[in-house]
Amino acid sequence: QKESYIMRNALEEFVKEFDKATPVTKQWLLLYDKIYQNRTASNENSEIALVHKEKILPNSMQKKALNNLQELRNEGANKALLISATGTGKTYLSAFDVAAFNPSKCLYVVHRRNIAEAAMKTFKNVIGQNKSYGLYSGDKREIEADFLFTTIQTMSRESNLNQFKADHFDYIIVDETHRAGAESYLRVIEYFDAQFLLGMTATPERTDGLDIFSLFDHN
């Protein structure tokens, strides 16, 4: 109702913000475009500097998970499932663990190419230039890279899987593991025989009853 305290305050706040707003004219859009282009260039330069200069360290949550992963490996486990809410830094956490594991070859599996590209940037930021990085998706087939970032649509094809030996990758990460019940994910997980397999998801429970936990030995 318009008479309510919440509605009255909301309308008053809207009117204040509306009155302070800048009209979107052609001249304003040209100015905004210049600012946006400058910021984009600045961010790219910052990212390059970050890769070379700034050491990124895990936060307290990531430290605890990394310790748990190392304890599992010390006990002989070769699989683990990381369950963490969206936005809590799972990709960085996986990069920290890969850095600790120090594999010769690493595979990162996702469901979209833009996520693979973002993950590759994260790994570069954490691990640096001592490893080579490549994409394996669509027209990108950089299979000689030490750390390969791929989409499930590409990697799950039999002809593509057969380009690699089962033990080619020492460490494999499967992002959004709740999708792993799909035949394409199972094909990749069952084909490779990595020294360590890490699954990552915010929602491991599936409505179809498939047990994702068992894919990772309930670790």
Classification by helices and strands: alpha/beta
Mean pLDDT: 84
Give me the number of helical elements: 9
Name the shape in a single word.
extended
Rg value: 22 Å
Uncertain residue segments: 47-52
H-E string: HHHEHEHEEEHHEHEH
Work out the strand percent: 15-25%
The strands making up the biggest β-sheet line up spatially as 1-7-6-2-5-3-4
Question: What is the strand tally?
Answer: 7
Instruction: Give the end-to-end Cα distance, rounded to a whole number of Å.
Output: 52 Å
Give the proportion of residues in helices.
40-55%
Largest sheet: 7 strands, mixed
Q: How would you describe the overall organization of this protein?
A:
Mean pLDDT is 84; it is low at 47-52. The chain has a seven-stranded mixed beta sheet with strand order 1-7-6-2-5-3-4. It is α/β, with parallel strands linked by helices and 219 residues long. The chain contains nine helices and seven strands, in the order H-H-H-E-H-E-H-E-E-E-H-H-E-H-E-H. Helix 2 crosses helix 5, helix 3 packs across helix 4 (90-101) and helix 4 crosses helix 5. The protein has helices at 5-20, 26-53, 60-74, 90-101, 113-127, 152-155, 158-161, 183-191, 212-215; strands at residues 79-83, 106-110, 133-137, 140-141, 147-151, 171-175, 196-201.
Quick structural overview:
49% of the residues lie in helices and 15% in strands. The protein has nine helices and seven strands; from the N terminus they run αααβαβαβββααβαβα. The longest helix has 28 residues, at 26-53.
